[in-house]
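Weekly puzzle thread! Below is a chain. First person to post its structure in token form gets bragging rights.
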Amino acid sequence: RFPNIIRYATPNLAGFQAIATVGAAEPATLNAASNGKRTGLNLRYANGPILGTVSYLREGRDGGSTDYNKGVKGGFAFTFPSATKVGLIYEQLTWPTNTTELKRKNTLVSLSQNLGAVDLNATYGKAKAAQISGADLANTGAKYLTLTGAYNFSKRTLAYLSYNKIDNDSR
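Winning reply:
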């Protein structure tokens, strides 16, 4: 979430929608590494069992026109009649500078099932090794797995149990 943004969302037309945001540059603070202008665009389709989305974000930093962070993310989900949902997300983050570029690519796959008051979810993700100007950096990748079960007592109250495992390449 960014402070001081202007956001415009188009009307939903047969499931298609676009959302554009522009954020004002903020004064630097002790807790904020970035204080530049932010721009973002999200295109999405949500109709029936299908959901698809593509997002772009660019966040400026002090230092000139090549000093910014950017991210691109795409996702797809499908809900089967049995209330089983499958999802896939791909993300690429980029931090260019005047001399080089750092990139990180992440992929996530999710499977969930609703069984009345019980929700089950399994998520697997992989963060590829970070790259500087196309060359992999050693020991910077990771894999993770999350298994979650939740029992919904009401619309506002639930209890859940979650198993999480992260395997960093640096071991």
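Puzzle host: Confirmed. Bonus trivia for everyone else. DSSP finds no helices and twelve strands in the chain.
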